[in-house]
Design a protein that fits this description.
Number of helices: 2
Number of strands: 14
Low-confidence stretches: none
Strand content: over 45%
Radius of gyration: 19 Å
Oligomer: single chain
Shape: globular
Distance between the termini: 30 Å
Largest sheet: 4 strands, antiparallel
Structural class: alpha+beta
Length: 211
């Protein structure tokens, strides 16, 4: 369990400055700007709404680099962006370890509490949104593509199943998986990790096997 994380990030080989990132139980603080008098972005922990993260691959016949990306959003829809690169395998392991450390710290410091708060709401019989997914006592409501429109469909808890993949998480109906399903990208969709953890815990508490 992380107590806090202090690291310095060199965003790319074109940016020689190592920028301080401080993940603290009470705030996030990152020097993401180049203005002399206003170089930091800060969010209080209570202001953090959601996050997404992933790796963008640079390819030209072969993979020659990767960009690690974090987007953290507050309730005013302001977004703190954390990005850093690795090219031609240089410091690839070091950058990957940094990426994993930041994910773990974000989760331990801010989003474990968010999951617990959502679960308390669920136990109290309330409904809530995670991204565009509605979680309620009956099940989850997802948007499914139907020809030229999106249709809202409720999947009951007894019928709900999920699968984890390398870059996304999928929800589907056990009775009709081919037509009732939806994937959520860790990199493109907000709070996919939170959605996964909530669904996994609710199914486990209901003793429903994810078969």
């Amino acid at each position: 369990m992380a107590t806090e994380l202090k690291v310095k990030i060199k965003r790319s080989f074109l940016d020689n400055y190592y920028r301080p990132l401080h993940l603290h139980p009470e705030f996030i603080h990152f020097e993401d700007k180049d203005l002399v008098n206003d170089s930091f972005t800060s969010f209080k922990a209570s202001e953090i709404k959601d996050f997404r993260c992933g790796v963008n691959w640079f390819k030209y016949y072969f993979v020659f680099g990767r960009e690690y990306q974090f987007y953290i959003r507050n309730f005013n829809d302001e977004v703190l962006k954390i990005k850093f690169n690795s090219y031609f395998g240089i410091k690839k392991k070091e950058k990957h370890n940094l990426y994993v450390s930041i994910i773990n710290a974000l989760w331990d410091l801010y989003f474990t509490k968010q999951v617990n708060d959502f679960l308390q709401e669920f136990e109290a019989g309330e409904c809530f949104y995670i991204g565009d997914v509605v979680v309620n006592p009956e099940g989850v409501i997802i948007s499914v593509s139907k020809l030229m429109k999106q249709e809202k469909i409720l999947i009951s808890w007894e019928n709900l199943r999920f699968r984890m993949f390398k870059s996304y998480f999928s929800i589907y109906s056990k009775e009709n998986p081919n037509e009732i399903n939806r994937g959520y990208s860790y990199k493109e969709d907000w709070n996919t990790f939170v959605l996964y953890d909530i669904i996994k815990k609710i199914l486990s508490n209901k003793k429903i096997n994810n078969d």
